[in-house]
Amino acid sequence: MKKSNTIYVKLKEFYWKNEKHFISALIAILVSLYFLNLNQYFYRVLTMICLYSILALSLNIVLGYTGRLSLGHAAFYSIGAYVSAIMQVRYNIDFFIALILGVIIAGFFGFLLGLTTMRLSGSYLAITTIGFLEVIRMVLLSWESVTNGAFGIQNIPRPKFFGYELTTANGGIYLLALVALIASVYFSAALNDSKLGRNLRAIKNDDFATTMMGVNTNRYKVIAFTISGAMAGLAGTIFASMNRYIDPNTFNFDTSMLIVCICILGGMGSIKGQLLGALLLVSFPEILRSFALYRFVVYGLILLVMMRFRPQGLLGSLSTRPYKFPRGVKVKEEGIGGEPL
Amino acid sequence: MLLQQLVNGLSLGIVYALIAVGYSLVFGILRLVNMSHGAIYAFGAHIALMVVTLEWGLVPAIILSCILTAILNVLFDRIILAPLREKKSTNIASLISTVGFSYVVQNLLMIIFGSERKAFPKLFDYGVIEVFSLRINSTQIFILLTSLIILGILTLIIYRTSIGLAMRGTEQNTRAAQLVGINVKNVITITFALSGISAAIAAFMVAGYYNAVYPNMGAQIGLKAFSAAVLGGIGVLHGSVIGGLVVGVAEALAVTLLGGAYRDATAFVILFLVLIIRPNGIFGKKETVKV
What we know:
The complex is a heterodimer.
Chain A: H1 2-17, H2 19-35, H3 40-65, H4 73-91, H5 95-117, H6 122-142, H7 144-147, E1 160-161, E2 164-165, H8 172-193, H9 195-205, H10 207-212, H11 217-243, H12 253-266, H13 271-287, H14 295-309
Antiparallel strand pairs in A: 1-2
Chain B: H1 2-30, H2 37-53, H3 58-86, H4 91-113, E1 118-119, E2 128-131, E3 134-137, H5 138-160, H6 162-172, H7 174-179, H8 184-210, E4 212-213, H9 217-232, H10 237-258, H11 263-277
Antiparallel strand pairs in B: 1-4, 2-3
Helix pairs in contact in B: 1-5, 1-8, 1-9, 1-10, 2-3, 2-4, 2-8, 2-9, 3-4, 3-8, 5-6, 5-8, 6-8, 9-10, 9-11, 10-11
């Protein structure tokens, strides 16, 4: 036990030392998958993993950093998808402009939800977000002149990048989703290290104490929801282009639950955790086909087991990584508190 | 016509009230919204359906459904929530656990019974009674009376028995209740049993009213009942009853005035409004946060 522990610690230290190389190697592998010309099904699964990673990262900002449970994240996903689809099908707007519009409008809805729920927490917040999801779904179903109701929107055009068509078959959509994922990861990491991220984590730990420290918590809660909504909208726009068909029932409570599951399995607050969680939970029904019927039961069980035995998630434990001082700061060999470093 | 909708709304509203009381009971003691209440409700309906399909009759159906639902609810608390309380986990951990449990129950029901709508026999269907051009279904009268009786019994249990006294004591201050010798564990168990029974009875009546049972039946109605509980002030029993009636009537009015598509949205609109204007509900007490 002890020996394996030391190996684990050494591996960890090795990873910390070479983190940059590891990350660039991982990105290189993921990008090289694009050039391998795999089959369409494989690209589709990979794209879904990327999209759900983005969704989980988006929920992570609300649930992981700020500690507020949202069960309505599928709503932002659907808003992004619908805005982008409607813009492209009805108004022939280029995909990338539609993407930006989708992100902005999903972010705006996140802002609205944040405003209405800033005074709520815990269960009230969770149920209000379910209500939000249901209302959005109802609007999508009944506002037929715009959303085409239950029939959904068909024939969403494939995105074009300087004349080159991005499809699931040639892996272009996968590359697009991967780029969006990398951007989201870097954004999340930057957010985590920023003043905003520190404020959000402070709200998670103690809302009241944070207010007493002079932080306008309501403002930061709204900001968290806005950013989160925009990120989920980004995933939605890419999904619409990949699937080329969307209807209101694609984005239901099950979608929200899957996002919550990924976030909790991977570890609330951990960025790597979100990626691992998405990889495990999205690929699991594909790998264990015979088990697919039970996947929703498994999602529920994951929530129960994780909360009971490992509420911090697979990768969400407190980091033992030594603090990296900013450049220019010199530390005495003594270390802090007389303990040798 | 308006009066007619009022009657329809009241008979559904009293069922919402019955489910809302289930939320309120648990919330009062644990300060936790039991998100699995809708799934528990669907479970009750399916047990009743199973007994009815076996042709054991309606009375054994309701009794068995009550017992099994109460047992499931108590087991849920004992196996899943109690360890979390002992570990002093965060509130959000319990909340996520209730969501997970509801998901497990609902999907197991779907796998075992199938996700389609299954027919359920009509309850007390003696035709329609006409009073001053009001058409009242006998099922509606049955639902109204039964719900009122059940709500009355619940009120009696809580305000007139020693266990009810223990429940109220625990609700006010768990620590102090423990100090004066109340077995808080038992109180919580009984609370969960009562909440399960009220959900099973409500499920039985709604299944009889719409003649349909399906695994997702608890999702919508659970949210509506939650809205009702919040409207009346969650944790307050008479608040839940009034909240349920208001939601039921508002829903019926929305159908007449705006059309059927807006029926399910009414409860959410009420929920949003209450949470924005008066988060503690009509009868709720304002809770102060102690540091």
